[in-house]
Design a protein that fits this description.
The structure is a single chain. Among the domains are: about 90 residues, Thrombin, subunit H, CATH 2.40.10; about 90 residues; about 230 residues, Rossmann fold. The chain is about 15% helix and about 35% strand. The protein is built from eleven helices and 44 strands.
Amino acid sequence: MKIKYLSTLLFGLFASLTVSAQQLKEFTLEDLNFGGHNYYNMVPKSRYCTWWGDQLVRLEGNACYIVNKTNGKETKLFDKSEINQWIAPTRSIKVNSLGGAKFPYADKSVVVLRDGASIYTVDFKKHSLVSETEIADSDNLLESNYKSGAMAILRDNNLYVRRGAKEWQLSKDGSREIVYGQSVHRDEFGIHKGTFFSNDGTKLAFYRMDQSMVVDYPQVTIPEIDYFNHPETQTCSAVAAPDKYPMTGETSHEVTVGVFDSATGKTIYLKAGNPKDRYFTNISWSPDDKTIYMFELNRDQNDCRLVSYNATTGEKTGELYRETDEKYVEPQHPIMFLPWDNSQFIMQSQKDGYNHLYLCTLGKHGSRMAHNTESLDIKQLTSGKWVVMEVLGFNAKRKSIIIASNEINPIQRNLFAVDVKTGKRTRVDETGNGWHNGLLSVSGAFVFDKYSSPDVPNNIAIVNTENGKKLSYFHAEDPWKGYNVPEYSCGTVKAADGVTDLYWRMVKPTNFDPKKKYPTIIYVYGGPHAHNVDARWHYSSRSWETYMAQNGYLLFILDNRGSENRGKAFEQATFRQLGQEEMKDQMKGVEYLKTLPYVDADRIGVHGWSFGGFMTISLMTNYPDVFKVGVAGGPVIDWHWYEVMYGERYMDTPQTNPEGYKKTSLLYKAKDLKGKLQIITGYNDATVVPQHCLTFIKACIAAGTQPDFFVYPGEPHNMRGHQSTHLHERISQYFFDYLK
């Protein structure tokens, strides 16, 4: 299958006529790069909305507006000056922006606003302040529950719950080694937070992580100095900032789950047994708040179980479900109870090869009967060679689930309503093509459908999920109108297995001449839980690609096996040998490029960051006669030194897979480097620690090969702010210098 998209090129020709004889403008990195001074003027405009029940509210910094879902007309709800007047007519209170306004109650005219250390709850119909809460500078607000008004707070490494004027201290031994209420397991397994309020907000489940047994990685922090204003008066002493970093095969941290009950003021811990060999993830509550469910995964990550616990005693009440796999099981989503039936919930699993929904029914007495496997009936609700990408929520009236999936096309994301009784799916997004992100109203009757497609920068529709009526609410203008824009195209090649379609994106040089031969840069990531090519604007092209196309380079990007959204077999093809199958697939892309008369096969470069940095050096050293120039950012060099959860999932441990670790290690490839390679890293990278880059350079010194190396002091895994522009200037210049 080949997909070609040429309307951007045609638009460029049309634009050249409409601007008369005026020359089309050229981009700069300040225009295109995140962190650039003009970047926000160059991205498609949008409208930011939220739901107040089933009423759509548009948010601006100075005002909030109710949007008529039939015709799109807007009526002002309130503005900033009114809010400040209602909060404190006699005080100098200044809520600076309404952009983060929340409307937590579908049946109440209440808005919640946070400004600095203050949280205000305002009744905008009564024009009065409902409550005002101050968060001290030393406090970190982790989570709020609007039903109870409770807040989970971290203070001096210890966990507190505040509710009105009352406050409870849940821990006393919090430290750098004993961590409360934070994301655990290095943010793997779908974990992104560490506190979980019950539905009524009177109880709080939370993580406790003991990492005292984890070896410190010796990070060093250099204080910030203003080099332009008397730097000689400022000290620059390095400060030790060790990071608890469990590497593959080594001792990892131990996690337990606590439950606090504000009715009793007591905390208990779930009796989940020995935490040394398990990961606890995807915590959820039963509708009656009496039971806690979570997935428990063994350290080998091939045995996953859904387990229930009594939220009052901590006793285990059942093992409801078990899933095993010869490679790995990866729970990513908590169960979700149906809002119209407390005995049924939705579970997501890849057990049939693709991530799908399963309707699970507890015994006739609900969670009280969930103490043995037989009490859980499981029915597959969706199926097919496509994946459920997200569950947006439920429509209780229609008894349906609103999901996002790539059922229509592997590189699309569309929205569907799934009938819980029949499994029938009805598309509910506006167009049926492109990439759609939906925000569901409280009842599920409406979805705010924000989408783009290869030739659409950003559109928004309001869709009635019950009758299918759609209102086109917003169309963004092309922010690149008047600029010299390259051609973006998309297609497929066969993977190295000869069967699987791999999707690619190409960005041709501006003012493309098919009779010329162009230097070509392959941008690569290639790792799990990511993809580069989809049906968004310009096929999701990174702005740096446009900058390089403007400078006479052809860009090529291929999603190899191992990347996301293509099913379990596609993802697991790289198991125990990261980088190997990925390289084979990338070389199929190179083979395709060499068939094109306008690609200069003697001038091929490669660039990537993180896993893409690992792939860049892998390709440079395994195919030294193909790749002339490479820029590797934050690269993994040897999987021995990567974190336990991610590393052991895809590679097993160094003890059980020594051949795989040796085969994938780039230290043994340092001697094979022939082309020009620049390695770049943030020197305080806590994701891919500096040991990777430094050890590879040491291996190159021993081998007599000559990579270049650049460091961003004090920066993490990705460069922040305007330093990102500096970074892309450096990357670009390296190709300008050596891949001319």
